[in-house]
Amino acid sequence: xxxxxxxxxxxxxxxxxxxxxxxxxxxxxxxxxxxxxxxxxxxxxxxxxxxxxxxxxxxxxxxxxxxxxxxxxxxxxxxxxxxxxxxxxxxxxxxxxxxxxxxxxxxxxxxxxxxxxxxxxxxxxxxxxxxxxxxxxxxxxxxxxxxxxxxxxxxxxxxxxxxxxxxxxxxxxxxxxxxxxxxxxxxxxxxxxxxxxxxxxxxxxxxxxxxxxxxxxxxxxxxxxxxxxxxxxxxxxxxxxxxxxxxxxxxxxxxxxxxxxxxxxxxxxxxxxxxxxxxxxxxxxxxxxxxxxxxxxxxxxxxxxxxxxxxxxxxxxxxxxxxxxxxxxxxxxxxxxxxxxxxxxxxxxxxxxxxxxxxxxxxxxxxxxxxxxxxxxxxxxxxxxxxxxxxxxxxxxxxxxxxxxxxxxxxxxxxxxxxxxxxxxxxxxxx
Length: 431
Known about the structure:
By secondary structure, this protein is of the alpha/beta class. 48% of the residues lie in helices and 14% in strands. Helix 4 runs parallel beside helix 5 (95-105), helix 6 (119-129) packs across helix 7 and helix 12 (252-265) runs parallel beside helix 18 (381-392). The chain starts with a helix and ends in an 8-residue tail after the last helix.
């Protein structure tokens, strides 16, 4: 309620703390800029200031980074097909998310960084772009942003909404404020029943929350996938291939150790390595060379040669294609408590999957994949290596996982259709 004195008090305290932390945000951008230069650019957007003049109203979708942008692809492409007259704006927080937006849609879709959750910055953003509706991917619960949308009569949808037990505990301190902000949302389109229940526990009203399924199941396999994989194999030669995808810095030593052990058993084995963050591209290439292996990269060598032991995928937007070129995939963010990354992309391409044990961001998907036989989980670095070795030596086991993964993806589709039905009433009249 707008006249809620507790809301005003909590918002005031929260906003005061954020304003005090503004110097920290500047330090953060500079610090990140030393590792990834893109953080040193476009600061005005992060504080809600724009050089271009306001244009027509937009339909706005927010996706934090690459993973959320990829999850939003089915929605955005469906909207573009059905309503080509709509002006679409996609915001991200990370430069890698920004690069992914540009790689997917070029300049056909507008992009800026979402400003920090400062009342002034949020207000300038909303007043500049005047959205028809706000579509927020997964779990971005910024109180001033949500209250700002409510105060302007802007309907907000949280799409593909997920909330793990760990994230729910993380909101504990701000729960009185976040719960009030959450109740301003038109609809929370939850990935699963468990996610829906946790959103209600956080403060949403039960009538706000609907379980629609996970948009990641509606992943579209890129055209020419088989031809891409065949071309990669032709250059690499007839030998086994595994891919380490979306790995984090703390997992890099494990990937090197696993590859060394696997090559002792499978001479000539090729590792396709796609780190999660672009600033790690050159580092992992250097680490692999220091280990004594011939290394090439996608940006320089285009394809792995027959002599390469490691091929670093140092580009954005091509991971799905390289999944298809591998006999088995390790999906990172799972050997450390990051929570895992998208398991449905390799399943859709027909690649058997191995992960570490930390999968709390994909608990429902990983459970279903494990139950269906589409996933293997190693308890630690040695366990992951053992599972990879077992699959590389067993064509029949890999074939069974491929069939199970593709069947699971196909059976899980449908969230996109339900999401579009939810959005239809708030879209502006067609031109």
